[in-house]
């Protein structure tokens, strides 16, 4: 940053996010991150050397997996023995300092940005920021979100799916959304484990082979479904048929076996240190994480240890967006896991589970009812979908439209050079119904594009996913944090035959003017967000939100107006 701007920002003063000088520096950083994330051949030492041109570190004893995203890079400081799994996102408008012996599981997000509650300031893109500090010896299990101004002490364990919105004292075990201290005065030493993981990333043949295949898959030009799936199928020990969309990451692959029809949507992460098995007709929605590594506490020794335990997913299972499945879990046949859930214990068959931690919401009896379509009904499946009726998503017209969209997504996400940014914007102008005043960071994915209408002055950070099986309306002056997902589609729950026959419903989603949606949030089908409302980070919005309400949680609840 230029000295004047940097001093203003680091003091926590208000500034214009779209300041030209700051934006230039962000583009330079994003270009470097893009080059790192899209390097085809996995050469660990060269990658580490390149990361040193983005962030600050005095050690060579670290490893950061792809997909890594940050805003400036030079505001990030890491100590000795630092390890990050896939999909680390850091909005480093202010300083972020990590101590020694740090382990970050998959899909962790750090955000120094303070977005104002005043809608007029949001219209003007006025923000401020606060520093984040992480002490020594910290273990983040995965899918953890750290908000601005937080200080985390030494010797802290943060369990999967936690939202950290207040300081964490040393020697604490933390979990929940929002987080709570569930154990104090803990002690552990994971230094040797972190060193072992860094060594594996650098030298283990299975790790390197898996990442090379993932790189080939994630960088492939999306010409057809078969070509993409032929690449990813090289990873798995056993499979019959697989469908996966970019970008996905698998740590080993050789420990994983999947059955007939294994469908994985955008940004899937699989850490298969232990065996992962999935039955027939298993569906993962966008941004799901499966992690066989877990933290366990031994009451007898009063010590924590990191273990790898197998995960088993039965037949006909549907796992909704942003769900996290922990090691040692078995999910029974026909069950559904709700969006944003953290599954820490077994889920029986024939039930719906939801929440953090996931609990059985209801049980059901499996049935099948044939779809009735009048003989004289000449509507296309696309028209039926937009009318919010049960439709066939495998329809040839819709499949071809999705393929066209995936190709556009791939082209858009692979243009990052500063001199081509206007060309990049033109791609989305032709793909979406969108006002010219917008900025959408890379890793953007949309199923169709033509069902999305976006107003003026729109900003989305990294990894926006829009499943626009029906219409998505986004008003003026709307801002999305990173990893936001909007889902119009839903699958039958009790009717397993219809679900496996590619039948689903889709409902409209409407977002008003002057709305701010926080990091890692999911907006479900049929939801309407009123003007001026604020959605807190890590929220799952399941019902309409009135104007000027502030909501948070899984499921999201109104906190205040």
How much strand? 25-35%
Give the N-to-C terminal Cα separation.
36 Å
Uncertain ranges? none
CA-atom Rg in angstroms: 22 Å
Choose one word for the global shape: globular
Number of strands: 58
Largest sheet entry: 7 strands, mixed
Alpha-beta content class: alpha/beta
Count the helices. How many? 11
The residue-averaged pLDDT reads 91
Describe the protein.
With 561 residues, this protein is α/β, with parallel strands linked by helices. It has 11 helices and 58 strands. It has a 7-stranded mixed beta sheet with strand order 3-6-9-14-17-19-20. The protein has a 7-stranded mixed beta sheet with strand order 21-24-27-32-35-37-38. A 7-stranded mixed beta sheet has the order 41-44-47-52-55-57-58, with no helix packed on it. A hairpin with a 4-residue loop joins β57 (550-552) and β58. α6 (205-219) runs antiparallel to α7. The two termini are 36 Å apart. The model has no long low-confidence stretch (mean pLDDT 91).
